Structure formats: C-alpha cells, structure tokens
C-alpha cells in the first residue's frame, strides 16, 4: 500500500483548525482534522450539484453563477461543461492556500479550467458576495462545508439560518436556484428553506456515480 504524504497545510479562516492536503500515488485528499472533506476519486455528487443547477436555468441568456468553495474543482468543471460561452462563473474561496493548491499540486485535476475566460476566482467569503448584490445571480451553489453547518468555518453558519437564506433568495434573479451540497439529510434545513420562501427539491445522490456514500443536494428555487 502506498502511504499518504502530506503536501501542505493551512489554517481555517478562524485559525482554530487546520486543512491538510495529502497525496497517495495519483490520489489526493483534503482533510480537516480526522474528517475527509474531499477526495479526488469521489467527485460524483459535487458534479451533480452543478448539473442539477444548470438544468434548472437552461436556456437563460448570459447566466451568472456563484459557486461557494473551490475545493478540487469538481463543481466548477461540471458547470463549465454544462454552460455556454456566454456564461459567467464566480468562485468564492476563503482559504488562499486552496487557490494555490489548485494552481500547484492539483493543477492536473483542474485541467486549465481556472484559465477559462468564463471563470473568475475571488478570495472572499461567499456570504459577503451573496449579501452585496440583489437579484444578481441565476444560481448560487454552496459546497463550503460537509452540509448546512459551518464545520470548516463557523462563520458559514450564517449561510444556513433564516437571515442567510433570506439574503440568498434576495441575491437570486426570479426563478433562480440556490443549490446546497451535504453529506447527509437535514430535515431542519429543508424546513428553513421552505420558510424562506423557496420551492424545495431534496435530491439523493452518490459520491461516485452509482456507488459510494449517499449524499444530499437541495435545489431551492426562487419562484417570484
């Protein structure tokens, strides 16, 4: 068995925890403590996050997409594959090292997508971007934690409460979509989405095609 090698580490934005980038052969992993946040072999549900969202806004002219969390680029690459040349995708990543990893040891995974003219990467809190503009986005995709709870950065908790969901709805164009990835179900979050005025679909998916862990994606539509 090839051993894991730690390539780099970075503090979370609050300074209280550490993200670690590890490699084993051609496989990469990003860890938070003992929790694996993502693995280069398991991209299915993150790709589905993009595909489901893009399906809901298909046919729109010059769609604007906001992705919270760069990760290993799975969601970004899938969104680029689904969208036309007139689309614009902004990726908000709060940890500078994650952006550096994307252009460094993980560059092969990203396959040049950061240089796509449709893409803009901002070192920023996605919550701040959401609150900064009204009716600005056709879709907002959140994959910044293991679910609707701020385990990587406690400040992310504000994204998933009533005020944060209200801000997300205000940031969406009519018929726009808020999509949230999670490692598992959360009935309380489903209820909060509905209370915020969204029409909600809860989609169960797998980590790797038809195999792997069962994950959940909420597709919440701003029908106003």
Describe the protein's architecture and organization.
It is a single chain. The protein has helices at 44-56, 74-82, 96-103, 107-110, 126-132, 157-160, 162-171, 187-195; strands spanning 5-11, 18-24, 27-32, 35-39, 64-68, 88-93, 119-123, 137-142, 172-182, 199-208, 211-221. With 224 residues, it is of the alpha/beta class. The strands form two sheets. The protein has a seven-stranded mixed sheet, with helices on both faces. The longest helix has 13 residues, at 44-56. The radius of gyration is 16 Å and the shape is globular. Residues 150-154 have low confidence and may be disordered.
Q: Which sheet architecture does the biggest sheet show?
A: 7 strands, mixed
Q: Which strand order does the major sheet show?
A: 7-6-5-8-9-11-10
State the end-to-end distance: 55 Å
Helix content: 25-40%
Low-confidence stretches: 150-154
Question: What structural class do the secondary elements suggest?
Answer: alpha/beta
The proportion of strand residues reads 35-45%
Order of helices and strands: EEEEHEHEHHEHEHHEHEE
Number of helices: 8
**How many strand elements?**
11
- Determine the mean pLDDT: 91
Radius of gyration: 16 Å
Shape: globular
List keywords for this structure.
single chain, 224 residues, alpha/beta, seven-stranded mixed β-sheet, four-stranded antiparallel β-sheet, 8 helices
Task: Briefly say what this structure is.
It is built from eight helices and eleven strands. The chain has helices spanning 44-56, 74-82, 96-103, 107-110, 126-132, 157-160, 162-171, 187-195, and strands spanning 5-11, 18-24, 27-32, 35-39, 64-68, 88-93, 119-123, 137-142, 172-182, 199-208, 211-221.
